[in-house]
Design brief:
Strand order of the largest sheet: 4-5-10-9
CATH architecture of the largest domain: Sandwich
Protein name: Matrin-type domain-containing protein
Keywords: Metal-binding, mRNA processing, mRNA splicing, Nucleus, Spliceosome, Zinc, Zinc-finger
Shape: elongated
Number of helices: 4
Organism: Amniculicola lignicola CBS 123094
GO molecular function: nucleic acid binding; zinc ion binding
Distance between the termini: 73 Å
Family: Belongs to the SF3A2 family.
Number of domains: 2
Length: about 240
């Protein structure tokens, strides 16, 4: 940083930089560093809104220009949130079997692949008779799915998608199976009970039907989840 020619300093002496000047210099250095390492076209958290500003979907911050956003990506807040997101997805088993964390589709998209439309589906509301937990059961039909391919599923938060304004009360259940289009369903933003018998998916290779059941946690499931043999729920 050039400290010469500052008010109250001798030529060549280098005056003391102000706090604002130091911060501006730091942001400029971070911006130049980000320009060398980040491709905004591939950044899943970069979003340009309708008023021309730039948003970070991960940190929920707004920036006036690309340089400000790039400097933000090198800051402590963004790097901390990236580490937290990576740890959460690793804990939940995401990022495997072709799943790509942070992308809307949730799967690796093959180039030059001709899509043949959406798969057929049926949604049924279910409830556990013992814990009274509410859930959803999905049935999908993939009659022309690619040979040797099984549908893939992913649960996505409201802040990862770009189709509409994020609503923290909802999350998205995403399913993909080539060559069909990837589709998503808006579901309540409740924690999913992943215990055996509660959450499952199964693909019928003969009938090409894919079944997924999601059961949401409630106070009863948290209280009695570890108890062997639950008493029948109240009618």
């Amino acid at each position: 940083m050039d400290y010469n020619n500052r008010a109250g300093s001798k030529f060549g002496g280098g005056g003391v930089a102000s706090q604002s000047a130091t911060n501006a210099d730091r942001r400029e250095r971070l911006r130049k560093l980000a320009l060398e390492t980040i491709d905004l076209d591939k950044d899943p958290y970069f979003f340009k809104n309708h008023v021309g500003s730039y948003e970070c979907r991960l940190c929920l911050t707004v920036h006036q220009n690309e340089g400000s956003y790039l400097a933000h990506t090198q800051g402590r807040k963004h790097q901390t949130n990236l580490a937290r997101r990576a740890a959460k997805e690793q804990k939940e088993g995401k990022g495997q079997d072709g799943l790509t964390p942070g992308l809307l589709a949730g799967v690796q998209v093959k180039k030059n692949l001709i899509r043949i439309g959406r798969p057929g589906y049926r949604i049924t509301k279910v409830r556990d008779p013992n814990t009274r937990q509410f859930g959803l059961r999905f049935q999908f039909q993939f009659p022309d799915i690619a040979p040797g391919t099984e549908p893939k599923v992913r649960i996505m938060s409201a802040y990862e998608q770009r189709g509409e304004d994020p609503d923290p009360n909802y999350q998205y259940f995403v399913i993909a199976g080539d060559p069909y289009e990837t589709i998503a369903f808006k579901i309540p933003a409740l924690e999913i009970d992943r215990r055996e018998g509660k959450h499952y998916n199964w693909f019928d290779e003969d009938g090409k039907d894919f079944w997924v059941q999601l059961i949401f946690k409630n106070e009863s499931s948290d209280r009695y989840g570890a108890a062997p043999g639950l008493a029948p729920g109240r009618k």
